[in-house]
């Protein structure tokens, strides 16, 4: 922590602690988005929570349940710079008036948990936390809570259920967490990466932050690059970097020089981009315009020679395993789609199976309490859109 | 094999040879190290390469083998679209003695076993093993001496834990084989007949004539075919292993049918590699005693999924491989013939080495004779030295017919008689001393992957002594078969080729072009139509 302070850590907190409205305004002007996958403007959430009165508490949940295949950015942040995350969280807590901060972390990320545990102990011993409490006017509590280990536990209302000691079933919305969150209190929930950006915005200003990105994107983004590239890693690049630059400049190109086939953007719960879309800019709005989404910023690169059906079937198995099962459409929908895909992938499929899958794609979106089933269909649908011929080929 | 122009032509040497000539004992070998360094291919640095990637990066390895270990995979994920999947408890790759022993041991424990073999069940080096099985059963012998002989024969670098496990299993292995129905040579009083061979401190070889391996395979093959929980796929070479999503655990394998060219996947918690050796790679241009399927596929597959290998620079060149007639080139004359007293002579009719020294030294001595112009040359330029079978027959009349009927029959089919004509021999690539690193259960360094038989390493050090190969395959085959049935977590698992991607990444990073593909599956000279069906 001393090293972090010496490098300028904590200055943002010292500067902005007594002016929460200015922090909210800076974040609004910086166009900071929810980097956990939604791309939802952060300031809208913050304003909503700030306008609520504590009943008797207000919560801030730092969502580190990162479990999406191909995503490993939050783990890096928590392991390497936990203090920056904590400072960002405290700034957010002060900005919305939250007095209870819960760090909710995937239990499998043992190194992240250990780093965060040490860091929180250091904050408890430091004057910075006392200073923040005095700014808030009531004691701030920092709690570290390992998550449930369930994929669905990363959904924001599921996280709240777990924090309340229950199984992480997503809740129906509305009411939104800003009104009724943990134990009925107003709750702000943000991703680790989102909060890690806040201190920089406060310290350097919204204009500086916006200029880091390539318009229309603002700031930087951590891209988790994996798959058939030479150098898979987490890259912090300007928001709006093109896919081509990410893969060929930073990722070192494809393994064994094979042509690119497709990219799973934002992890498998989002979409497939075919090779023609290499020059798309990787920010929330540009990808949405292409019918794709940035999601967590995971980019799973697939080279020629990879079977799309097999990959999609694999991810579907993961989702069927991960569905919490409270919504019938998701519980049976993912299981059925997984079954059909496995059949097709192992050479036992029929044209009817394919037609069934297409029908399910039309029926299922939006039928669940949470986004899971819609995300799953989005994946399958986009694989149909670009690689239908491979499904037909697997039918034999 | 290097052609030697200054060697004596066959006809001239044959005319010079007489089984009745007086022969002086061989000169005493002063410095076996110098002999090996000068003539044994394992010690020639120009035939070695250093591995650049994988678990053995930095290790020495035979050049031809290194190229295969650091090569591109045959298949891609896309090839597996629509490939049928079979589930089983234990998957065994390889249909030789080790594979069959493992299959039987696993099936006896109630597991569903799938045994997949590249050619046919029993098409293996096991059937080539002629001499016998080494096992300490004589009153003047002990397990301890068996262990010591094995370690010393292997230049003291074998893994003592593996060697003692094998030697201790010995008597039980023989008991089990007899119970399965295998025949052994007996003394008139009904005890097992033993004989002594190179590098042994006591008579320790039990055998069945000079086709011990064939007899063993006959019994194992019948048992495997008859066992109702063992399924066998023939003509299905393994082209790749399957790994979990981290590429660190073996969860199955991919096979290509030679009948219809289709890929099939097998998912299983336990894979036992029993793929044998690599003689058909003809390292350093040597002929080989190995069967047609011995192309080192198991080493390639294991290395790519991350298993550690050992002693990749050490192979056994059996001293007595045939040179003549041509169609038997590389085929073995069992060490049993030398054990029974046969001598080796150079073109001048002189003995040049004690025939019962360890195999690597005897081979190096033959190579020295050939290279220094004291060899005997056949018309196509290949050279060799005499193995003096007529003199053996004279000293012990009827011996060849009684104890080496296979040898006799093989030559009589070619119109020759070893009782009259000496055999022309030259060292032949016989055995892979090293291999996949295993523990006493045959488990490799990769979870879910076992390795038994010739493809595994660590038992024979840098040189195997006679009779330990047949013991090893049964001992470790059964050990791995039992260990592979141990209950383990079968939860939701991903089946991927992630390890192939990792290997590609490593190769690209060190700048090795992905032009060569491995495993090789079939020898270079196999008809191309077999693969491209």
Overview of this protein structure:
The complex is a heterodimer of chains A (396) and B (533). Chain A is 48% helix and 13% strand. Chain A is built from 17 helices and 9 strands. The mean pLDDT of chain A is 92. Chain B has 533 residues and is α/β, with parallel strands linked by helices. Chain B has helices at residues 10-16, 32-39, 63-69, 97-108, 143-153, 160-180, 212-226, 297-304, 335-339, 359-371, 389-395, 399-403, 405-412, 468-483, 498-509, 528-531, and strands spanning 8-9, 48-50, 60-62, 85-87, 90-93, 113-116, 133-134, 194-195, 205-206, 230-233, 238-243, 250-256, 263-267, 270-273, 309-310, 315-322, 343-345, 376-377, 383-388, 423-432, 435-437, 449-451, 456-457. In chain B, strands 1, 16, 17, 18, 19 and 20 form a 6-stranded mixed β-sheet that branches. A 5-stranded parallel β-sheet of chain B has the order 10-6-5-14-22, with helices on one face. In chain B, strands 4-13-12-11 form a 4-stranded mixed β-sheet, covered by helices on one side. In chain B, strand 5, helix 4 and strand 6 (113-116) form a beta-alpha-beta unit. The mean pLDDT of chain B is 92.
């Amino acid at each position: 922590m001393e090293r972090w302070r010496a490098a300028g850590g904590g200055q943002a907190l010292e500067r902005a602690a007594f002016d929460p409205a200015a922090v909210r305004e800076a974040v609004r002007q910086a166009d900071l988005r929810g980097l956990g996958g939604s791309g939802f403007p952060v300031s809208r959430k913050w304003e909503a929570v700030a306008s609520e009165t504590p009943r008797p508490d207000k919560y801030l949940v730092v969502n580190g349940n990162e479990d999406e295949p191909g995503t490993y950015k939050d783990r890096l942040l928590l392991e390497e710079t936990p203090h920056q995350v904590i400072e960002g969280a405290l700034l957010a807590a002060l900005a919305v008036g939250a007095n209870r901060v819960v760090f909710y972390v995937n239990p499998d990320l043992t190194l992240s948990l250990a780093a965060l545990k040490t860091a929180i102990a250091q904050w408890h011993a430091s004057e910075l936390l006392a200073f923040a409490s005095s700014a808030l006017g009531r004691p701030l509590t920092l709690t570290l809570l390992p998550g449930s280990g369930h994929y669905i536990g990363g959904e924001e209302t599921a996280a709240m259920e777990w924090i309340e000691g229950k199984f992480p079933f997503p809740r129906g919305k509305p009411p939104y967490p800003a009104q009724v969150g943990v134990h009925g209190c107003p709750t702000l929930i943000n991703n680790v990466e989102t909060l890690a950006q806040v201190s920089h915005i406060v310290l350097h200003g919204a204009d500086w932050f916006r200029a880091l990105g390539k318009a229309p994107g603002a700031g930087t983004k951590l891209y988790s690059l994996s798959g058939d590239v030479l150098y898979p890693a987490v890259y912090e690049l300007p928001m709006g970097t093109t896919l081509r630059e990410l893969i060929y400049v930073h990722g070192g190109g494809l393994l064994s020089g094979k042509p690119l086939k497709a990219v799973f953007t934002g992890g498998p719960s989002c979409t497939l981009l075919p090779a023609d879309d290499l020059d798309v800019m990787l920010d929330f709005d540009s990808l949405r315009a292409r019918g794709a989404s940035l999601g967590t910023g995971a980019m799973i690169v697939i080279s020629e020679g990879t079977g799309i059906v097999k990959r999609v079937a694999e991810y579907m198995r993961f989702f069927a395993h991960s569905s919490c099962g409270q919504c019938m459409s998701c519980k049976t929908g993912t299981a059925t789609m997984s079954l059909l895909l496995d059949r097709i992938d192992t050479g036992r499929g029929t044209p009817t199976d394919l037609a069934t899958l297409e029908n399910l794609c039309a029926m299922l979106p939006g039928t669940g309490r949470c986004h899971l089933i819609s995300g799953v269909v989005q994946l399958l649908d986009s694989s149909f859109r670009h690689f239908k011929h491979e499904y037909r080929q697997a039918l034999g | 094999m290097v052609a030697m122009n200054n060697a004596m032509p066959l006809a001239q040497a044959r005319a010079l040879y007489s089984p009745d000539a007086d022969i002086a004992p061989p000169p005493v070998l002063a410095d076996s190290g110098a002999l090996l360094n000068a003539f044994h291919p394992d010690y020639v640095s120009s035939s070695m390469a250093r591995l650049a990637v994988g678990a053995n990066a930095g290790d020495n390895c035979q050049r031809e083998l290194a190229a295969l270990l650091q090569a591109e995979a045959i298949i891609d994920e896309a090839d597996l679209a629509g490939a049928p999947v079979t589930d089983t408890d234990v998957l065994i790759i390889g249909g030789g003695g080790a594979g069959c022993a493992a299959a039987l041991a696993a099936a006896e424990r109630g597991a569903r076993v799938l045994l997949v073999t590249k050619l046919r069940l029993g098409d293996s080096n096991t059937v080539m093993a002629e001499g016998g099985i080494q096992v300490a059963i004589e009153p003047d012998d002990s397990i301890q001496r068996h262990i010591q002989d094995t370690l010393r024969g292997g230049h003291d670098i074998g893994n003592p834990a593996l060697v003692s496990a094998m030697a201790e299993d010995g008597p039980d292995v023989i008991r089990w084989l007899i119970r399965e129905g295998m025949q052994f040579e007996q003394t008139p009083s009904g005890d097992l007949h033993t004989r002594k061979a190179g590098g042994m401190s006591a008579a320790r070889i039990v055998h069945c004539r000079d086709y011990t391996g064939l007899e063993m395979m006959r019994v194992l093959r019948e048992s495997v075919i008859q066992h109702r929980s063992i399924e066998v796929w023939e003509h299905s070479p393994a082209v790749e292993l399957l790994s979990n999503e981290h590429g660190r655990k073996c969860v199955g394998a991919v096979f290509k049918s030679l009948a219809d060219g289709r890929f099939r996947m097998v998912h299983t918690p336990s894979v036992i590699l029993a793929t044998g050796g690599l003689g058909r790679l003809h390292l350093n241009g040597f002929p080989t005693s190995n069967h047609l399927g011995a192309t080192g596929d198991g080493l390639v597959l294991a290395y790519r999924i991350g298993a550690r290998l050992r002693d990749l620079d050490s192979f056994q060149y059996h001293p007595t491989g045939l040179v003549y007639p041509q169609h038997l080139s590389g085929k073995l004359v069992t060490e049993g013939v030398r054990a029974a007293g046969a001598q080796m002579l150079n073109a001048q009719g002189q003995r040049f080495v004690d025939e019962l020294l360890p195999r690597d030294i005897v081979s190096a001595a033959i190579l020295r004779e050939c290279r220094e112009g004291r060899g005997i040359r056949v018309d196509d330029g290949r050279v060799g030295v005499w193995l003096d079978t007529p003199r053996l027959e004279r000293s012990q009349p009827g011996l060849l017919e009684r104890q080496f009927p296979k040898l006799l029959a093989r030559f009589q089919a070619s119109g020759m008689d070893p009782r009259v004509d000496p055999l022309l021999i030259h060292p032949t690539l016989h055995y892979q001393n090293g291999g996949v690193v295993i523990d006493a259960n045959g488990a490799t360094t990769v979870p879910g992957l076992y390795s038994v038989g010739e493809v595994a390493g660590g038992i024979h050090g840098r040189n195997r002594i006679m009779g330990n190969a047949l013991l090893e395959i049964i001992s470790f085959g059964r050990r791995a078969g039992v260990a592979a049935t141990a209950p383990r977590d079968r939860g939701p698992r991903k089946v991927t080729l992630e390890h192939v991607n990792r290997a590609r990444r490593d190769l690209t990073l060190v700048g090795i072009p992905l032009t060569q593909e491995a495993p090789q599956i079939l020898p270079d000279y196999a008809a191309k139509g077999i693969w491209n069906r």
